[in-house]
Write a structure and sequence with these properties.
CATH superfamily of the largest domain: Ribonuclease H-like superfamily/Ribonuclease H
Number of domains: 2
Shape: globular
Helix content: 40-55%
CATH class of the largest domain: Alpha Beta
Distance between the termini: 43 Å
Largest sheet: 5 strands, mixed
CATH architecture of the largest domain: 2-Layer Sandwich
Amino acid sequence: MVDISRKPGRARRHNSRRHSDPPEYRNDSWGILEDGRRLLIHLELGNRESYESCLGFLRSLISRGLRAPVLVTSDGAPGMIRAIEEVFPTALRQRCLFHKKQNVLAKVPDAERAEVGSFLNAVYWAPTPEMAQTLANEFVTKYERAQPSAVRCFLDDLAACLAHLRCPEIHRKAIRTTNVIERSFEESRRRTKVIPRFFEERSCIKLVYAELLRAGQRSKRVRMSEIELKQLSMLRRQVEDERRRPAHTTSPRAKKKTA
């Protein structure tokens, strides 16, 4: 399982750009290994949420020997989503629920956020995918008239928000967000805040890399007993089989209606 995220960095080079120029973005990738360890897989600077940048980042992981993971967790950047689906077509894609909840609740009045937030937790933390889908339908029925914008945001990429529910229950908390990466971003910002700009890109990478290593050392291992490993192996085969199945063709009647 792999976590991937993108955040603005402070990798401006001294005298190479005006101080007002936008910062470069950085891609971070963490993996959860079969022994439960969290491992920093890759760190790279790139331009602002570009599909080409994300695609190059993921292809570099493949070129270094990474096989397709069971699940990939990322934020909702369109370029990253497109790149993940192209490079890892047989992997489940999980949307970071921390960011997704923020997006939905931003469209809800303050007085109703606690109630809507509790309902979102019930959907996203449901015991099974089937229960989550049932609760999602109830969420839509309850709020589609009063909060149409929030419901549209909720329905967008819903399948990816529920992908973690197919994984072993003991793993779900660790894979449904990119929080491990987000916490390292905050520490990196604190350390680079007093540095107006770096003389070279390598200086920024070294500082960020050191903080990411410390974050990995502080993080707890994910339990990987023989049972969880068997469950993940079965899930991998199920997803691969699903991806190989031909897409359902549209029936003639449906074509006639849409003509």
